[in-house]
Design goal:
With 177 residues, the protein is an alpha+beta fold. The protein has one domain. Helix content is 17%, strand content 12%. Strand 3 and strand 4 form a beta hairpin. The longest helix has 13 residues. It is flat, with a radius of gyration of 16 Å. The N terminus and C terminus are likely disordered.
């Protein structure tokens, strides 16, 4: 993942303090409006991306076809397009320019495990994610392989420059009113 370690955000993106999402992974099952299970295991090949949004078909870890749409610089499952677009628009309004990574192939996930966890079969397929630096999901278990997670680097313009990596970090909702 570009930009360093990430932490999971456990709030819907519509309720996230945008400065707090810098340097995080936003899993799709925490994003409102997704089907039960957050889209994991769902064939999304027949769900079109909005007009004008570049797209392609990919295969998930279980060879289930998924439609990947490009929103700004993020390649995400078609199920995330609306919510990610709203998050990016809200961030832009707050002067935050988010970039980072999203969909990655099974082969890319294996490469990341090798780089972050070690080269052995144990390192790639069995080592607990928390023992990797940065923590990296076992191939086949990453929401990125479904296009259902988004990483944001700590160094994104408008993000706090020295926000500490805090596992389990839960951003607070913005004030209302």
């Amino acid at each position: 993942m570009p930009g360093g370690p990430s932490t999971s955000v456990a709030l819907p993106v519509v309720d996230v303090d945008l400065a707090a999402v810098c340097g995080t992974t936003i899993p799709a099952d925490n994003v409102g409006g997704l089907p039960a299970g957050g889209g994991v295991g769902q064939d999304t090949s027949a769900i079109a991306c909005p007009n004008g949004v570049p797209d392609r078909l990919e295969a998930s870890p279980g060879a289930v076809p998924i439609r990947i749409c490009t929103v700004a610089l993020f390649d995400v499952n078609t199920l995330l397009v609306s919510n990610l677009s709203a998050l990016l628009a809200a961030a832009a309004t707050d002067g935050i320019s988010l970039g980072g990574g999203a969909f990655r192939s099974h082969a890319s996930q294996i490469s990341l495990r090798r780089a972050h966890c070690g080269p052995s079969t144990y390192d790639i397929w069995q080592r607990p994610s928390r023992e990797c630096r940065p923590p990296t999901a076992i191939p086949g278990q990453s929401l990125h392989e479904w296009g259902l997670a988004v990483d944001t680097p700590r160094a994104a313009p408008g993000c706090p420059a020295r926000r500490p990596a805090t596992p389990g970090c839960k951003p607070t909702p913005p004030p209302t009113g």
